[in-house]
């Protein structure tokens, strides 16, 4: 049996998204990118964790272990804000199919806006893309819930911490863009941690539509 995707190689892996067998090369290259892989596919899950380990190792090699400790410190101070930011990113990725590049633009805007705010000026920096602006607006909204509301209590954050966190995200996305050719590597990677939508779309019984 030949792979339905390349029509060349032997199809050895069962692909739950395509509901048939595909070859290991197509699976490796297309999973999570051209193939809308469900999160219970063992090849997809294995690939995700491999990517993650590889990226971590490469980053430590490039930037030294110090950058990792720094990220861990920032994260431990307020894991909730990291989770909420990631939720927004994954949501935009699924809704608008944004690229890692759009993400860097949006994060840059957020940093600029917070820097301006530090000087006492309230001005929201904008880009040309409407979606990028919407994304930076939502990220700012997340930050503001932690920064400005008294009821957050202990989780309340300073503007400097917020800037550090956003800069950390920016550094990570830029790193992924350097080491990977797929323009959505970072977003695909973090989506693996937020499976809600995939579960929902499967349980609603809809067919998976692929281009
Ligand atoms: Zn193939």
Quick description:
With 211 residues, this protein is mainly α. Helix content is 63%, strand content 3%. It has a domain at 65-191.
Structure description:
With 211 residues, this protein is mainly alpha-helical. The protein has a domain of 127 residues. It contains 9 helices and 2 strands; from the N terminus they run ββααααααααα. It has a two-stranded antiparallel ribbon with strand order 1-2. Helix 2 crosses helix 3 and helix 4 crosses helix 8. The longest helix is centred in the N-terminal third of the chain and has 22 residues. The protein is elongated. The two termini are 23 Å apart. The C terminus is likely disordered. Bound molecules: zinc ion. Zinc ion binds next to helix 1.
- Taken as a percent bin, the fraction of beta residues is under 5%
- Terminal CA distance reads 23 Å
What small molecules does the structure contain?
zinc ion
Instruction: Report the average pLDDT across residues.
Output: 86
Biggest sheet: strand arrangement? 1-2
Largest beta-sheet characterization: 2 strands, antiparallel
Shape: elongated
| Poorly predicted tracts of residues | 198-211
Number of helices: 9
H/E element string? EEHHHHHHHHH
Give the C-alpha Rg. 19 Å
Q: Give helix % range.
A: 55-70%
* Estimated structural class: mainly alpha
**How many E-type strands?**
2
